[in-house]
Design a protein that fits this description.
Layout lengths: L6 H6 L5 E2 L29 H16 L5 E8 L2 E12 L4 E2 L6 E2 L4 H14 L20 E6 L5 E5 L6 H6 L13 H8 L8 H9 L16 H13 L3 H10 L22 E4 L6 E4 L24 E2 L1 H12 L3 E2 L2 E2 L3 H7 L13 H4 L12 E3 L4 E3 L2 H4 L7 E5 L5 E5 L4 E6 L2 E2 L8 H12 L6
Parallel strand pairs: 8-18
Antiparallel strand pairs: 1-15, 2-3, 2-17, 3-4, 5-10, 6-7, 8-9, 11-12, 13-14, 14-15, 15-16, 16-17
Helix pairs in contact: 2-13, 3-7, 3-8, 6-7
């Protein structure tokens, strides 16, 4: 998510999609070489070419209708590129086409990457799921919890019954706020404290420690600052700056050459513009840092390396990350995680009886990544544990998430495929096309021979 706290940003950034990977059926696929290999014949991987044309037409229509400036989609099955298409423009003003190497703001698609970093340290024995968060962030030892609101709108508090656990931190059941809900009293406090404008991750922890939790740890679900706190835990446990850890341990081994917290000068010409819909005209308008602090300038380094939403990337790079997850933690002969650790990330961590608030997701106008029966949340991924109950076409154990500028992905281990969708639009006007939902429905409609 964006790092700014204006009401505009709160509304626009309030959504990030979802799904997650179970221990059943971790694929052992060769990794695709996106830049070197042409897409395979769809029928060779069990997909129907005519069905994929319908997918292509739906994505192209969103551009033609002016709903998005540009769009890129990447569909891979059995480690082979089925489709890698681009549509429209990365910059309308500059007449710059969307390209396969266009760099985009992925916002909350940063979260699963942070989760993988955490699991690498988990495998090294540096933390356990039921450890209290305060073991690694002592500033969080004496938290309070909102118990109500008085007649003046002031938050009443009570002591937390206990410190949230690491498992709760990674599954958004810890109780921390975020600042994204324009109505929530705790989120208002997060915005007032400018938590998302902290100087660095250590400062973010300090500011968060002074604010109440929304609920007692483990007793509810709320999308939270928890993944930014994880970024700081990575620093504490590794002794490295968060960006250095990601570069050394994830991006370089996976050859994710264009993923970073800011875009270097030599690459700025590949950075897409980001848009919002003008409510008065219904037309897209390009957003600029000159418009205010809510529009982050990704062309310059900044102190807060947000584990929750600070990265820029490309469809190719995020595809390599997705393939690593689909492969059970390995890519191109390099292993980042054990299959058991990847599987653990896809185990639903939400206790029975807790019904996550999906309003942030619903605000993006998609049905593909919504909380419902059969859909839960694991460690920094949403997971589809029962597709039939959820009335979703994906396979059991499908993982996903998305970003505030409309990017999305899902990873389906049952069907050995993943999909990455990239746009740059903050928020969606009423009635806008449900791009993730369309992409998901049409992808599986085209999967005519899943046994192949």
């Amino acid at each position: 998510m964006t790092r700014r706290n204006s009401l505009l940003a709160t509304t626009l950034l309030a959504a990030c999609l979802a799904t997650s990977l179970s221990s059943a059926s971790l694929a052992k696929s060769p990794s695709p070489s996106y830049d070197l290999v042409q897409p395979v014949a769809p029928q060779s991987v069990g997909m129907d070419a005519e069905g994929l044309k319908a997918l292509d037409a739906a994505m192209a229509k969103a551009v033609a209708d002016g709903e998005v400036a540009g769009l890129s989609t990447l569909l891979v099955r059995h480690g082979k590129v089925v489709q890698f298409n681009t549509y429209g423009q990365a910059s309308i003003d500059q007449a710059k086409p969307m390209a396969k190497d266009t760099i985009l703001r992925i916002y909350s698609m940063t979260k699963p990457i942070t989760g993988v970093a955490m699991m690498m340290l988990y495998e090294e024995g540096k933390w356990k799921l039921d450890d209290p968060v305060s073991k690694y962030l002592p500033e969080l030892a004496n938290l309070t919890v909102m118990s109500g609101v008085d007649e003046q709108g002031n938050v009443r508090t009570e002591p937390a019954k206990r410190v949230p656990t690491m498992r709760e931190l990674m599954s958004h059941t810890s109780g921390f706020g975020y600042g994204l809900d324009p109505r929530g009293p705790i989120d208002k406090m997060f915005r007032k404290a400018a938590v998302l404008q902290s100087n660095d991750l250590a400062d973010l922890v300090t500011r968060t420690s002074k604010l109440p939790l929304k609920f007692q740890p483990g007793e509810n679900w709320s999308y939270s600052i928890g993944v930014d706190l994880q970024g700081r835990i990575v620093e504490v446990l590794s002794g490295q700056k968060f960006s250095d850890f990601l570069q050394q341990r994830i991006f370089t081994p996976l050859n994710m050459k264009d993923t970073a917290f800011y875009v270097e000068t030599s690459k700025v010409d590949r950075l897409s513009d980001v848009y919002a819909t003008n409510p008065a005209t219904g037309k897209l308008i390009a957003l600029s840092p000159k418009m205010g602090p809510q529009v982050q300038d990704f062309t310059k380094p900044h102190g807060l390396e947000s584990g929750g939403g600070g990265l820029t990337s490309t469809a190719s790079d995020y595809g390599r990350f997705s393939q690593m997850v689909l492969n059970g933690g390995t890519l191109d002969g390099v292993r980042l995680l054990k299959p058991q650790s990847i599987a653990l990330m896809g185990v639903n961590a939400i206790a029975p009886g807790i019904h996550p608030d999906g309003s942030l997701i619903a605000g993006m106008g998609t049905s593909a990544f919504a909380f419902k029966d059969g859909v839960g949340f694991g460690l920094d991924f949403m997971v589809v544990s029962d597709p039939k109950t959820a009335a979703l076409p994906v396979g059991k154990g499908t993982l996903s998430w998305g970003g505030a500028a409309g990017t999305w992905f899902w990873i389906d281990p049952t069907n050995d495929l993943y999909f990455v969708g990239m746009i740059q639009r903050m928020g969606a006007k009423p009635g806008a096309a449900d791009l993730p939902g369309q992409a998901q429905a049409l992808t599986y409609k085209a999967l005519t021979h899943p046994e192949k």
